[in-house]
Amino acid sequence: MFSQYRMCKEGQTIPESSSDDNADYIPDTHHEDDDQPDNTEDVKMEIVWFNVYNMTVLHLLALYGFYQSLFYATWPTIVFSWLLYIFGGLGITAGAHRLWAHKSYKATPFLRGFLMVCQTLAGQDDLYKWSRDHRVHHKWSETHADPYNANRGMFFSHIGWLLIKKHPDVMKYGNKLNYDDILSDPIVKFQRKYYQPLFWSICALMPTLVPYFGWGEHPFVAFTVAGCARYVFTLHMTWLVNSLAHYYGIRPYDSKINPAENRLVSLGAIGEGFHNFHHSFPFDYQTSEMGYSLNITTMFIDLMYFFGQAYDLRTVSKSVIEGKKERTGDKSGVRRFFRPTYGKTQ
């Protein structure tokens, strides 16, 4: 089986664990458990109005921030905002996603602490919740147990899943997985305990105060541009991986699943849009075989490896990739929209 081996950066082949209780390897479509989500039942959507209100206010502030960036913000503020976007994105891609959710490499306490700060800057809940939901997403992808099930529509998989109550299967099946490896990390514990003050100081206050004290930017301009607009842009770039990358693109590794190779998403999400590869080989730290092409995150991890901050980088061999392509890949190279494969899509 193609998941039988993993390979470290040095090329050493290490036997892969046969258990996925700790999400060491989580298959995308082949579920071994007898008890599976019932994907034919109707879903009653219960709107969480508090979240709707918060998202509405946040997006209005962000829209004003984009306007401010065009006509009032200084160049240092705009450059600073883009840097915050990159660092916040790395907190999600290199941190929450590849390090904590998939354990595709290991990191020193210094790097883990840095990525924790960056992930807090991105403002997408604490590391434990993000990684937990993502593991459930991979284990029961595009079923009712998937927190951002693309079969319920592109809007749902993009942002709608945050505006309504989770389907009961998300909690039911999510409880079947083991997250002890995440919760045992003292850095995750620290962030989880102090997440609210960390979020407000790193994601909201710092982007406002640095431009104000650093180069005299108006505080409201700094707040709406470097704070709100940058934050919302980061959110949508991350959400595109769950939505657009599950809808449109090529599927050279597994034609039977919806996740696709979408270079536009990889550009915005600094390397996370090669999604057919990622759902075929979720333990590979590169999330693609494209090298550094549209993959800033892989460049960053390799840089950290060079400086001794990242180690045990896990990859899949070329022969295994080619074998997977030959067995299950779409060889046409045609970019296609997905078709729902499970039950109803409401």
Count of DSSP H/I helices:
14
Distance between the termini: 35 Å
Q: What's the order of the H and E elements?
A: EEHHEHHHHHHHHEHHHEHE
Mean pLDDT: 89
Overall helicity? 40-55%
Low-confidence parts: 1-32, 342-346
What would you call the shape? Answer: globular
Q: Report the β-strand fraction as a percent range.
A: under 5%
Q: What's the number of domains?
A: 1
| Backbone structural class | mainly alpha
Q: What about the largest sheet?
A: 2 strands, antiparallel
Placed side by side, the strands forming the largest sheet appear as 1-2
Radius of gyration: 20 Å
Describe what this molecule looks like in 3D.
This protein has 346 residues and is mainly α. The chain has one domain (5-28, 44-337). Helix content is 52%, strand content 4%. It has a two-stranded antiparallel sheet with strand order 1-2. A two-stranded antiparallel sheet has the order 3-5. Helix 2 (75-101) packs across helix 4 (127-139), helix 2 packs parallel to helix 10 and helix 9 packs across helix 10 (219-242). It starts with a strand and ends in a 9-residue tail after the last strand. Mean pLDDT is 89; it is low at 1-32 and 342-346.
